[in-house]
Amino acid sequence: MRVIRNFSDITDMLRLSHGRKRVAVACPADSHTEYVVERALREGIADFTLVCAGTCAPEFARLAGQYPDRTDVIIVPTPDDTARRAVEIVRQGEADVLMKGTLNTDNLLHAVLNKEHGLLEPGRILSHVTATFIPAYGKMLVFADAAVIPRPTLEQFEAILGYATGLSRRLGVERPAVALVNFTEKVNEKFPHSIYYEELKQRAAEGRYGNVCLGGPMDVKTALDTESGRIKGITSPVVGNADVLIFPNIESGNVFYKTITLFASAETAGMLCGTNAPVVVASRADSCESKYYSLAMACV
Fold this sequence. Notes:
Family: Belongs to the phosphate acetyltransferase and butyryltransferase family.
Strand content: 15-25%
Protein name: Phosphate butyryltransferase
Domain Phosphate acetyl/butaryl transferase: 81-299
CATH class of the largest domain: Alpha Beta
Largest sheet: 6 strands, mixed
Radius of gyration: 20 Å
InterPro entries: P_Ac_Bu_trans, Phos_Acetyltrans/Butyryltrans, PTA_PTB
CATH architecture of the largest domain: 3-Layer(aba) Sandwich
CATH topology of the largest domain: Isopropylmalate Dehydrogenase
GO molecular function: acyltransferase activity
Structural class: alpha/beta
Strand order of the largest sheet: 8-7-9-6-5-10
């Protein structure tokens, strides 16, 4: 499989694919969503079903007229109705990806998590996975969870690990190198996640997670910088070469996310995993580029 080295590779791959994914957008009524939809249509990476509240905004009506064979418009009474209808469209197999427009994330998740009509099957764990390209690092990096699970249990860590390594493999990494992130290399019962890390490594050694290499606990710098590992005397093959970062809690993951986008010129793309189809719920502060890449990644 081709190794995806940056986000341009993702969009190139989608353009060359023989079948476009269809995206159901709940409540498209803002300039960022307009940018994503128009660019995706222009570059030929996706088709859309736009579920609008009350009326279709002029910008989206224009796009529907410009791309009539690739854009459907559905009008429902309220923003909450857009969430329920878009989820229904995905649930029925009429769209492959769900995307949030101006709708509040909580309102969309209420429809996604509906026990009877939602997209999360009983027993599945909802999580958020982010892919990023940091120019100074030079290759795609996947990390989780920066948005959904506050303090992962062992079961939740397993799910997060599965989603993150699954995405890494979709990006062409045959054997993802996974760094289990902590502020120190020591295992300490005061920090339960470090105990969970040891169990994850044991299970990985038993082959429960497929072809993967787990290392840690280790800090982010050690995971991404070979010299830091050399100075500390850490010889794990993950050191300086991580494809995946698993964070111990939502605070550390979210701080990493916001820091790299502000100070490291990082491009990012994120989506919800665990549902029957990818769900794109970009942050309000995310750039248009980030939201476009999130959609592209979900289509992959």
